[in-house]
Specification:
This protein is an alpha/beta fold and about 190 residues long. The chain has a six-stranded mixed sheet. A hairpin with a 5-residue loop joins strand 5 and strand 6. The longest helix is centred in the middle third of the chain and has 16 residues. The radius of gyration is 23 Å and the shape is globular.
């Protein structure tokens, strides 16, 4: 075996993360009583998964349906059931997933961030999240039409879809994802 090949094999087995973890503790030892160190901290108690991923197979195609007009090639959708709501942490979770999805590929920049969108779907208007996006993130939140709000100010296109505000004529099925069907008339629309 050549020296070069032997050296490469040794480098493959060398574990750098434990060395960095120990070194970081040494470097910060004078302030250690104020810090907590965790090695290989797990980010989730269960495997990460995107609720719905919509991939356009023809990039030039412009989606006409109101909930998909914002779509680029890779579209991540976070869905909250009728008993749940879109929170501030929901936003950061799906935003983190979008970044992870973009980066977890075989080659560098295989998925351009300009081809990723985020959709948050819930029944109720997320008042606290909207306030947070405006005041903390300094985003603009603009109503596009009944139940659809675009969040502007980030390089990732983001929309919030409020199921209870959607037009029954335009989005009957999404509006019907509720545990409180409002009228006999609405029930009849489904059949």
């Amino acid at each position: 075996m050549s020296k070069t090949k032997e050296k490469t094999q040794k480098e493959e087995y060398l574990q750098w993360h434990p060395a960095f973890y120990a070194t970081a503790q040494i470097e910060l030892q004078e302030e250690a009583k104020y810090l907590i160190f965790e090695d290989e901290h797990q980010l989730s108690t269960k495997p990460m998964s995107i609720d719905v991923l919509v991939i356009k197979n023809e990039q030039k195609h412009k989606v006409q349906k109101n909930i998909g007009r914002i779509f680029q090639k890779y579209n991540l959708v976070e869905y909250k059931s009728p008993t749940d709501y879109i929170s501030i942490d929901t936003f950061y979770k799906i935003y983190g997933y979008a970044c992870f999805y973009k980066s977890d590929t075989g080659t560098t920049d295989e998925i351009p961030i300009s081809e990723v969108t985020i959709t948050l779907f819930g029944l109720g208007y997320p008042r606290k999240l909207i306030k947070h996006l405006r005041e903390v993130r300094r985003y603009q939140v603009e109503k596009q039409e009944d139940g659809i709000y675009y969040v502007r100010g980030d390089f990732i296109p983001i929309q919030i879809v409020v199921g209870s505000q959607l037009s029954p004529k335009e989005n009957l099925w999404l509006r019907g994802l509720t545990n409180k069907l409002e009228s006999q008339e609405m029930l009849e629309d489904f059949w």
